[in-house]
Amino acid sequence: MTKQYGSRRTLLLALAILTLLVLAASIRYGAIDFSTAEISRALTSILPGHSEPTLDQRIFLELRLPRAILCLLVGASLGVGGTLMQALFRNPIVEPGLVGTSSGAAFGSALFFVLGGVLHMETSLWTLPFAACIGGIISTYLVFLLARSREDARASIVMLLLTGLAVNALFMSAIGFLSYIARDPQARSITFWSLGTLSGASWKAVEIVAITTIVGSIVALRYAKQLNALMIGEEEATYLGVNVNRLKWIILSVNVVIVAVATAFTGVISFVGLVVPHMLRMVGGADNRFLIIGSALTGATLLTLADLLARMVVRPAELPIGIVTSAVGVPVFIFLLRQRRYVF
Amino acid sequence: MKKILIVATVVAALVSALSCSRFHNAPSNSTEARYVVISPIYNEIIWALGAQDQVVGIDLSTTYPPEVKNVQTVGYHRALSAEGILSLHPTAIIHDNNIGPPQVVQQLQQLNIPMKTFTAKNDSFDGTKALIREMGAYFHKEARAEELCNTMDSQKAASLEKVKQYTDHPRVAVIHFGRASNVYLVVGKGGGGDGGGVSQMIELAGGQMAVENRGMQRMESPEIIAQANPDVVLLTDYGYDRLGGSLEQIKALPGVATSNAAKDNRIYRIEENVLNYFGPRSGENIGKVAAIIHQK
Amino acid sequence: MLEADNISFRVGQKVLITDISVQFAPGKLHLIIGPNGAGKSTLIKVLARLLRPQNGKIEYERVDVQHATEADLAKRRAVLSQAIEVAFPLSVREVVMMGRYPHFGGRPARLDETIVDEVMSHFDVTEFSERNYQTLSGGERQRVNFARVLAQLWRDGLTACRYLFLDEPLTFLDIRHQIDFMKKVRSFAGAPDVVTVGVVHDLNLAARFADQIVLLNHGRVVATGTPGEVLTADRIREVFDVNPTFVRANGSGVHLIFD
């Protein structure tokens, strides 16, 4: 016992340290590089009694810092989302981007911008993430219902991926349609939605995404043991005392919420949820408690690295982050497809 | 455990490699004007006015004149990054109200970065001259601005003389490739916004717009072109090059194959910055457009 | 004691089992047999409360089991199925530990670890402890699952009676493992506080190992009783549509041969 738990704990600790290192790099480097002295001056400038922050310091405090933190949070959401989805569908080749959640959330958000403009709605800070959740819920449940698992678990994974493909296409073209008819500049910005970017990060966004990510992950952790039981089959899990239907609804909802809210602020970022749990399983096994914590950390790290790359490679211009995650994620996806034991 | 150490080493190496290729930030205590200009037409005019020394950043879509590639690009105008722009320490950002995403615009406003849009628009010949004069005043190149306007007038007169020589009034369909939406678009008659200059240029060049609808629309239905039955089809440069200049493939676009233009192989390439919008070279561009559409 | 009282179960219009009333006493091995489509699997699932019958009731020690919670039931009732497909690489130990899930909240206690050690040793799978379950053979997997199920049903001094259900557990096993398995089941079933009910296809195995046989056909009980009582030539011919010959072999009871 102790041997396996012990090594997992070490692994998680190492991951946490790595996350902090990457966060530090992300804060320091970018279109503008900040030295440690500059960073501490910027941070102390917000304390009372200090002079007004300079433009560079404001850039650090209002653009760089929230972006770095949002990146961690969104990465964690996507990582955990991937783990939950794979546990739920008992297959390592699913993730929120592939089964419609992200595109549905993006559509909900884009629609919010269009309708908000047209109806002149009174909106609160939470209306956008709420709209994203509705969109994400509709698209995910659509896929889930259409690909209802039958006795033969393998056949339904084909259905799942194909249905996910179809639903993704549906919602992305709906976004395209919106960008065609809408006056609102945000809704028209289709590259924002389809390729994703962290460039719009703000402290407001950080606040909202922090709440959903942290609360969602804690709820998910509480059900980790039940998700483990699910790994040997739905019937078996029932025999072990798990209320499988209730588990499915709860986990699916948590999943949709954390991914949808992240997507509302960054657009669709795919493949993080696919790659992260896979990597973790290779080094630490499939226990869901380990996976949930690990994928939050690894997702945060990977997305931060991806964002760093996106900001540095063509600076001062930026690559949409979806390009970077796809460049890594697609080969992994193909590799997983080709692995015999996971396939159809 | 070993895997984590490998990853950590890679990360550390990456980070140190990136810090070695350090971007040299310009000194921020200089008193010179430093502009980031996000608009192809504004940049063309600035270069024509000779004020380009003050430009430190341009957008990806600015391609004329060729010298612009010596200036740093800040990315696609709808996918900007506030930090990227600000790393160039601009004293002002000049744009034509076509920048995004909105969050980035908000961030720039929040940081009180001066942003400037000129009132005059280049949606007509005269509008363009007004814009040149306005920009001339802004950049303190009034004399040069006047020269440019005069050149435009005289070149236009010369072009219109040439146009009178042509006896035909070909019906022209213009196909443009919209990079943001990744589809081919048909440019219609009249209307402002994207492609507003096209119908004016075609008409000045002695042609008529074959497609009646306003503005730009997607080529989903073959009827748009088929009904219009143009004598000449023009493709703007990017869209033309994208199909490798292959007449076969161009004729495969919806509705093109049955047109007179396809039958006579009167399908030509034209630079976007010659046709789509007005600018300092529009005077002579009229002549260029005429030369293309009237050829047999 | 497990009592099924006038059970019927249908899916939509199709009636799978009907009018089934049987008693299963502790300390004995009860085997349900019947041709394909007789309703054996359905009956087992209803007895284990995976399915809820439209009519009738199931009583575990005179208490209607309908209202028990999943969590509570899981502490005293376990099911061993044909073969479980594990989607991800899990170690054998992790799989066996799942049997203890109904008994602990967050993390396993010392006791749970000890129980897992014991059952793994009992089924000779200790050497596989850290191996990936997916790499095991059919026979090895069944031993692991049996260990898991036994860990789930480990006597805890609180539960009066424990219930073990076997849903065609022999399907992917070769002959040697089938016999091994049945021997182990028999020995477990002999405990006075355990009710063991299983479904098997092989009539010879049923004849050899069962204390009580329940013969099903077309969703109804045709006969219950000892193997000798139930497995008569006429009945076998009528229900299974084959012609049996009884062969007496020294020491190992009666065997059936079919043509």
Write the layout of secondary structure elements.
The complex is a heterotrimer of chains A (344), B (296) and C (259).
Chain A: H1 2-28, H2 36-44, H3 55-89, H4 101-119, H5 127-146, H6 153-181, H7 185-188, H8 190-195, H9 203-222, H10 224-230, H11 234-239, H12 244-266, H13 272-284, H14 288-312, H15 321-338
Chain B: H1 2-20, E1 35-38, H2 40-49, E2 55-58, E3 72-73, H3 82-86, E4 92-95, H4 102-110, E5 115-116, H5 125-138, H6 142-165, E6 171-178, E7 183-187, H7 196-204, E8 208-209, E9 216-218, H8 223-228, E10 232-236, H9 237-242, H10 247-251, H11 260-263, E11 267-270, H12 272-275, H13 282-293
Chain C: E1 2-11, E2 14-24, E3 29-33, H1 40-47, E4 55-60, E5 63-64, H2 70-74, E6 77-80, H3 92-98, H4 110-122, H5 138-152, E7 162-167, H6 175-189, E8 194-199, H7 203-209, E9 212-217, E10 220-225, H8 227-230, H9 233-240, E11 244-249, E12 253-258
Helix pairs in contact in C: 3-5, 4-5
Describe it for me?
Chain A is mainly α and 344 residues long. Chain A has helices at residues 2-28, 36-44, 55-89, 101-119, 127-146, 153-181, 185-188, 190-195, 203-222, 224-230, 234-239, 244-266, 272-284, 288-312, 321-338. In chain A, helix 3 (55-89) packs across helix 13 (272-284). Chain A is globular, with a radius of gyration of 20 Å. The model of chain A has no long low-confidence stretch (mean pLDDT 85). Chain B is α/β, with parallel strands linked by helices and 296 residues long. Chain B contains 13 helices and eleven strands. In chain B, the strands form two sheets. In chain B, strands 6, 7, 8, 9, 10 and 11 form a six-stranded mixed beta sheet that branches. In chain B, strands 3-2-1-4-5 form a five-stranded parallel beta sheet, covered by helices on one side. With 259 residues, chain C is an alpha/beta fold. Helix content of chain C is 32%, strand content 29%. Chain C is built from nine helices and twelve strands. Chain C has helices at residues 40-47, 70-74, 92-98, 110-122, 138-152, 175-189, 203-209, 227-230, 233-240, and strands spanning 2-11, 14-24, 29-33, 55-60, 63-64, 77-80, 162-167, 194-199, 212-217, 220-225, 244-249, 253-258. In chain C, helix 3 (92-98) packs parallel to helix 5 and helix 4 (110-122) packs across helix 5. The termini of chain C are far apart. The mean pLDDT of chain C is 89. Classes of the chains: A mainly alpha (344), B alpha/beta (296), C alpha/beta (259). At the A-B interface, helix 1, helix 3, helix 6, helix 7 and helix 8 of A face helix 1, strand 3, helix 3 and helix 4 of B.
